[in-house]
Amino acid sequence: MSSRIALAGSRRANLSDEPIGALAPGKRVTVSLHLKDPSEPHRVPGSAEDFAALTEPTTRAELASRRRRQFADAERIAREFAAAHGLGIAEVDLAKRLIRFRGAADAIAAALGTRLMRYRAGNRHYHANTEPLHVPAELAPWLRCVLGLDTMPHRRRRRLTPFVPATGTPAAQALWPVDIARLYGIRAPNAGAGQCVGIIAPSGGYLPDDCTLAARHIGAPFPQIAEVSIDNGRNRFGRAPLADQELALDLQTVAAVAPGARIVIYFTDESAQGLADAVLAAVHDDAHRPHVISISWGTSEAQWQQLRFALDAANAALEDSVTLGVVVTAAAGDALATNGVGDDLVHVNFPASSPYVLSCGGTQISLAPDGTSIASEVVWNDGDHGTGGGISDLFVVPEYQQGLAIPGSFSTGKAGRGVPDVAATAAFVNGYRIVVNRQEIVQGGTSAVAPLWAGLIALINAERGSPIRRIHPGLYGDAALFRGITSGNNKSGPLGYDATAGWNACTGLGVPIGAAILAKFAAVA
User: Which of 5, 123, 346, 349 has its CA 20 to 30 A from that of 68?
Assistant: First the structure.
């Protein structure tokens, strides 16, 4: 092996948490090498050239075969590096552009020329590398990033306290997800039969009993659920109540919209490695083969900037979703346009800001007197919480948003990918009634909108008889598929955006007209 060089961006800029000592030398550590082909020309994510390359018809087998040839040299160099430092190979999956090492912490640190320290953040402990990583010069050009040495929890938790209905609570204060789907005309004869919806869960768990109780209100058996454990993730119901509520909201909303579909939960952890690995696992899952994936978590782009290399790995996984014809929905966030960052600027959520994702914003509905239709609908903003949305600081205006009147960033004035793409009700007023720990509660947030749209896409796939490979062009090309939301804003103080006619940075194209969307996309098999 030749000399080693520092890997750019391989140390987080902010290591201000309290250090509590060196990581135990013998602790087993797994490191993920995310690969890129140095000979492949750079494409701007979301550009017309990018999508043209990504959407050429490709099967999973063809992609895997191509990448085995593409990355054969990278695999050879990585294996030689691991052997030279006494590290084991935990996984080689070149279809995912992924190689994983496993070894003792001191051996890993020595191999990568860094130090590993333990840190405390509140009541949570994690470890991180204190110096940039150093890799062989032959290997460096093949590396997108190296993940696994910084296990700081990287997911912004939603802090929305649930409303627990008392006996006799008026029905107008909460709606079962199946009733919300009906308000938007989201229903189809096949009910999503034959489809699989993936849900990525960075923490939390669920109770099968809750699913059984919720099924009584859906009017159909609850979908079959499969579980996949990624890294340190598994069903941990009861350890993080808010995360349990979020997963229940995901599961019960998908089940209400597409009761005939199957659901697979990808349990992972909140580290950058866990999140990137979970997206890769879901997109490339040959066993369950979801053609739609729902992501209800997110963190502002500003916070991802500390781990920009991890964002690049996660976005590369989302890029693969386009290649393989998997539609990914993601929540735009629940902390208004500032995303709770507190720097007097506005920020959008990633992964919702990825050009490869269908980004989902939130509204607040008022019901007609009979309770079976929507009387009015505005941007969700209750003063403390409300829909995220705005202009990306990281991604250019994507191909499908070209030609729209998208404003410049409120913070910088620069053009960028507009968030969200679509919306639906997210407020606690007339919110989502779900079952958690055998008790009915009311939840909300754009975390409900992502699975609602994921369920709708499962219905589309079932009616078509084949999965839709890209949904953005069809949605952006037909205003008749949406009811535009033109009242309200997502401002926190003066910072944020107003709803306007056409696409806006609060609710995107608007809320779905379910029958029109199903008719349009199901007509093209």
Answer: 5
